[in-house]
Amino acid sequence: MADGSxxxxxxxxxxxxxxxxxxxxxxDGIIATAGLxxxxxxxxxxxxLLITAASAATIAGALSAGGAKWAEAAAExxxxxxxxxxxxxxxxxxxxxxxxxxxxxxxxxxxxxxLARDVAEQLSAVDPLAAQLQTEYGIDExxxxxxxILAGISAGLSFAVGASIxxxxxxxxxxxxxxVALLIAVVVSLTLTSIIAAKSSYMSAPRTILxxxxxxLGTMGISFLAGSVLLPPAD
Length: 235
Hints:
By secondary structure, the protein is mostly helical. The protein is built from 8 helices and no strands.
């Protein structure tokens, strides 16, 4: 029963981390595209240029976010595989030394020498490699080969979903309402995604919302000022 509770807690944590990762990528899409739009708006761009720029930013941003996540996940998996090969060699060459290292780990955790030795022996009897990987490196399992690709696709789609919010507002709202509608859409979407991230990770919703709004609105404001300075709108 206790083991089941532990694994349920681990699954909840992993699910929360996955949701938080999706939200972060979506927020990046919202903030990056809204900031770009504000920068062009500050420079006096018309709606056609705004839509073109936002569309290009959505596509490029999604590909960049997906590629970066794929590269990161693939590199982490390669590192884990190299660690497995290294530990496998060490276990084959000197199993007694590896058992002593495992015992020392549990002694450092507060167990007595005899109990630590007993725990290390029992774990090693079941799966010595898994015991070493978990205690020394915190590796519980190796993701499958498709995992980095799926992570990249997920990140790219999340970014695109976030970026589509300011893009759709610019496309659908009347010219006179663009700025107001975009501001409202960014505030609402960042608030909603922040609540989802906070609930999935047991964080404070107000603080998460505040941080997201500071970054999002700050980015939009600075981008607008930068656009105004670089190319003031014509009278």
